[in-house]
Amino acid sequence: MLNEDSPLVLMAGPGVSTNILYHALEQEFTVVRVIMEKSVSRRQLVKNRVKRLGYMKVGGQILFQLLMVPFLTGTGQNRIDQIQRQYYMDASPIPADTITYVDSVNSKAAIELLLELNPKVVVINGTRIISSNVLSCVPVHFINMHAGITPLYRGVHGGYWALYEKDVGNCGVTVHLVDQGIDTGGILYQERIKPSRKDTFVTYPYLQIAAGIPLIIVAVRDALAGKIQIKTTPVGTSRLYYHPTLCQYICARIGWGIK
Fold first, then answer.
1. Antiparallel, parallel or unpaired: β 187-192 and 99-102
2. pLDDT above 80: residue 34
3. Is the pLDDT score of 16 beyond 50?
């Protein structure tokens, strides 16, 4: 473990993936603080999404989240537990005294905290888009683990969408530098995953976390050693993906067996 002279800060949103990532990083480094932003209200999320996608599509996404995700989570819990055991994932809560809550990672409070902590590296997980003011407030690398192969599958559920697009070779995870875009920063490491027939929409992310954690640990070490190297961008069309609609999911599951 590195000492306090090489502090690492985790800026994140609440969730299981944040817990798993924290414990994995803490085994290798000194995570001096978790700056946890409060979740955006569901009403505000829906309002923002309607502006981009329209009422019909957002309505279908909401139906998928209300009707299908709970079913998949319930039926897939044994598989989730299996993956967590296999890859020694610790999803227990982050120690409360390590967390500082902020309304947003882009808030003045978050910037002041970063200046006070003076980290050597900042790891990002599950936050909103980070502003240039935050990215420039401390002269360090901001590193994110994205559940998809960028820049081909940006946004959310990159593993699922790669399978949906019949692009199995690009079902995976990316560790990249953070910029002001959505999953557009320089690629540090990528790894493909091979879901089994037992896996579904709700288990793909756990396989991606399992593949991504070793990569982000290496990326943090590279950053601390001043050896960051940007990898070649995969060939293909860059697209931004959102949640599937209920109709999209059912059609893909019945028609192509994409679970």
1. unpaired
2. yes
3. yes
Structural domain count, the chain: 1
**Is 162 domain-assigned?**
yes
Q: CA-CA distances (angstroms) from residue 28 to 3, 86, 145?
A: 10, 19, 16
Structure letter (DSSP) for residue 180: S
What strand order describes the sheet that includes 121-125? 99-102, 30-37, 7-12, 121-125, 141-146, 172-177, 187-192
Q: Is residue 83 part of a domain?
A: yes
Q: How confident is the model at residue 6 (pLDDT cuts 50, 70, 90)?
A: low
Domain, as residue range, for 223: 7-256
- Each as own residue / partner, the long-range contacts of residues 203-207 (CB below 8 Å, 24 or more positions apart, any chain) are 203/76, 203/79, 203/80, 203/83, 204/147, 204/157, 204/159, 204/160, 204/163, 204/171, 205/17, 205/147, 205/157, 205/159, 206/80, 206/83, 206/84, 206/89, 207/83, 207/159
Cα–Cα distance for residue pair 199/195, rounded to 1 Å: 6
| Residue 2, in any domain of the structure | no
- DSSP, res 185: S
Helix axes 204-225, 16-26, angle to 10 degrees: 40
pTM for the predicted model, two decimal places: 0.93
CB 131 within 8 A of CB 213: no
In whole angstroms, give the CA distance from residue 244 to residue 225.
Answer: 40
Compute the C-alpha angle 70/205/129, nearest 5°: 100
Q: What are phi and psi of 173, to 5 degrees?
A: -140, 150
